[in-house]
Design a protein that fits this description.
Two copies of one chain form a homodimer. Chain A is an all-alpha fold. In chain A, 73% of the residues lie in helices and 0% in strands. The radius of gyration of chain A is 18 Å and the shape is globular. The interface between A and B is medium-sized, with 26 and 26 residues.
């Protein structure tokens, strides 16, 4: 399902982990992070499969089903890595069920275009955020995360469909611009909840003996980058952010 | 997504088709049949992804998502073959949207176990039916169909979960036995509708110059086999049929 090379050799990777994993706090943070991303990928699979039912044509339905299958392949790679790390992947995912389901419950798309914008804007924002954190991790974990967040084909497809809809009816643009802002607000609110509840993840951002800390100024710069990328994505869709 | 070898060589398969394809009625029947199976696979993908949300554990959710992805892989192989045959795959699928959606609307599972039984009994019945028809086709089409109908991992998973549920509460068995009978009835009713509406498919069953016909006695024997297999599947689940 994925083209990623195996994260470890066949003799069992857990015994040859990078030195960073000797620190139990680091290991716990990586398990937490991979659990969060894995939950997100499974959730993306389900959401895309769900949205497929709203598609105006069979071809669009098949496009969304293809994206969903790609996300599921990402999920499998993350799950396998969690097992290699000696973690129960489903236990690692469990703490993130609440925040993810709350986000989805508050941002249930009411039509095909809201679903498309959510797939593009929401997944883009999540990917940016995880990539920021991945910069603090060992190379193997970083590569796995970046691979897992690869665009599943959403971007070009969504930009094309949304721009055509706005061209056909300008009111669609106003409505979807509001929708994009709401998605951003709900995502930030759930991210804050996760940061407050997950000590290991927070400790990761606070740094360690051999790892740089994310100080307040760095967190500020990170949020600036996330906001700028969000604005770029909205602009690509033809929407004001 | 699928391990199937390409159905034709790289120089473009349509020019080297088996002689049967020289008959436009045969070609139309194969396009019809592949369209029906492709719609069924996309529909199975969506239904399994939907049922995943009813799963009692994250692990079961992931199992259903894996099955859904396998079904989507089958869909892709069928779609690619339709394109090779010079057909628009979505146009070929379109006539079957009505019967499939009617079947799903009338058999929407009300809980996790009804969804599991439907995945096992419904897909098993469809697979048996298509395999019966595939016996009348050229070897390449037959192999593609049989490959597409390979068990996506449902059987062992569903049998395990349903048997455990009946062991825990015998009333579940009575309810699911009724459900299995209803699935069989609705499937037969939609199959009859398809047979009545699709002339090319019906002509296929009536035979051709170089192909045997399916006479009434043969149709009778086919239904006996379908019913026997259905009874076997229900018995494996621990259900009376």
């Amino acid at each position: 399902m994925t083209e990623m090379p195996p994260a470890s050799d066949e003799s069992g990777g857990a015994r040859q982990e990078p030195v960073a994993f000797a620190d139990p706090t680091y290991r716990a943070a990586v398990v937490d992070l991979l659990g969060a991303i894995a939950y997100g990928e499974m959730s993306a699979f389900e959401r895309l499969a769900d949205d497929a039912k709203l598609a105006p044509t069979l071809q669009d339905r098949a496009e969304l089903a293809a994206m969903a299958s790609t996300e599921f392949g990402h999920f499998c790679a993350l799950r396998d890595r969690l097992v290699e790390l000696g973690a129960d992947p489903f236990a690692a995912m469990e703490p993130f069920r609440g925040p993810f389901e709350a986000f989805h419950a508050r941002t249930a798309p009411s039509d095909w275009f809201e679903g498309l914008v959510k797939a593009y804007v929401g997944d883009g924002l999540a990917a940016d955020f995880y990539r920021e954190i991945a910069a603090f991790l060992d190379a193997g974990t970083r590569d796995l995360i970046i691979e897992s967040l690869a665009d599943a084909g959403q971007s070009d497809f969504v930009v094309d469909r949304v721009r055509k809809a706005i061209a056909a009816d300008h009111r669609v643009g106003g409505r979807l611009a509001l929708w994009g802002r709401r998605l951003m607000g709900e995502a930030l609110s759930q991210a804050q909840r996760v940061a407050a509840e997950r000590d290991a993840l927070s400790a990761l951002l606070a740094g360690g003996v051999d790892r740089p800390a994310l100080d307040l100024a760095a967190i500020g710069r990170m949020f600036t980058r996330l906001t700028e990328n969000h604005t770029d994505r909205m602009a690509r869709l033809g929407l004001a952010s």
